[in-house]
Amino acid sequence: MDTNSKLSNDTGVILVSHGSTLPYAEEVFIEIKEKFIKKTGLSAEIGYMKVSEPTIAGAVEILKDEVDDLNRIIALPVFLAPGIHTNIDIPQLLGLDPLEEDPRCPDGNYPAEHYLSIAPDVEFDGEIELLGSIGPRDELLDIIDKRINEALSESELDDDAKTGILLVTHGSRLNYNKEFATALYNKFEKTCELPSSFGFMELCGPSIPESINKLVEENDLERLVVVPVFIAPGMHTTHDIPHILGFLEEHEHSHSHSHGHGHDHSHDLTPVEFDGEILYPEPIKADDILIDILVKMIEEKL
Asked: What's CA 205's distance to the chain center, in Å?
């Protein structure tokens, strides 16, 4: 990417992430940031919504120190789908107006302990532009294909084993995540010759067990590749989904746990009825294709 010196001297980028209690996500986002900076030449910093550091306000302070004559910040949510975080939380953490009313707190008066109440204020006199989420871009299909091929290379079965593909995303009480997953899967289905489906970890359906059981029953599968369509590894990809798939013993994980952002996570207890081989590749992580997507999103604004 070609950026002139003026852009480099007055523009900074915040790569916005949720934050996690586990170290994996931070490691991935550091790699994403380093690759992004190398590819663009722009100053960039990670800004976490909660839990991890630096906060979004902290990222602004870092950019103010790093960028000469900083007068513009582009905030890029590294989220696959829009939702409460991208439309309500992140705008407010940046000092901007939310894009819609918060169904969790319609009057906007959050409890004193809520992370939107305790987050530090952004102190910046320049322009802050918030971009949208990544969305169901065609390039994501290339990453999914890579993960499927990586998983199949580790299979203990013959190449001709009857194989199915399941794409898994988080799920949401709002329609955004389901719309994203449906649109992405519709694109994937047109390019995939194997039996396939998609399922949600929680909050909406079809659930992972429901999708697996239906896919297996209809196609007499011997092998299943379950692809986590998540940016970074974390509690969901390392504990919740493996538990649903039967990889973890009951005592290793509780079915209901709170993440401290207004609701508990309760997973579908329907058992997965499949005795064949389940392959479970890594999420997207700092894949070069993801970096190209982020760079393209920035290029459209410079």
From this structure: 18
146-187 confidence digits (pLDDT tens): 999 999 999 999 999 999 999 999 988 778 999 999 999 999
pLDDT digits (tens, 9 = 90+) for 140-155: 999 999 999 999 999 9
CA 300 to the chain's CA centroid: 21
Reported pTM: 0.90
Asked if 5-133 and 139-279 have one fold, the answer is yes
Task: List active site positions.
Answer: 170
CATH 3.40.50.1400, applies to 5-133: yes
**What is the per-residue pLDDT for 159?**
95
**Domain 139-279, CATH among 3.30.420.40, 2.60.120.20, 3.90.1150.30, 3.40.50.1400:** 3.40.50.1400
Asked if residue 54 has a cis previous peptide bond (ω within 30° of 0), the answer is yes
Neighbours of 250 (CB within 10 A): 8
Residues 55-78 have pLDDT tens digits of 999 999 999 999 989 999 999 999
The contacts found for 292-296 with CB under 8 angstroms, 24 or more apart, are 292/39, 292/139, 293/134, 293/137, 293/139, 293/140, 294/15, 294/32, 294/36, 294/76, 294/78, 294/134, 295/1, 295/36, 295/39, 295/40
- Alpha-carbon distance of 101 to 115, in angstroms, equals 17
Per-domain boundaries in the chain = 5-133, 139-279
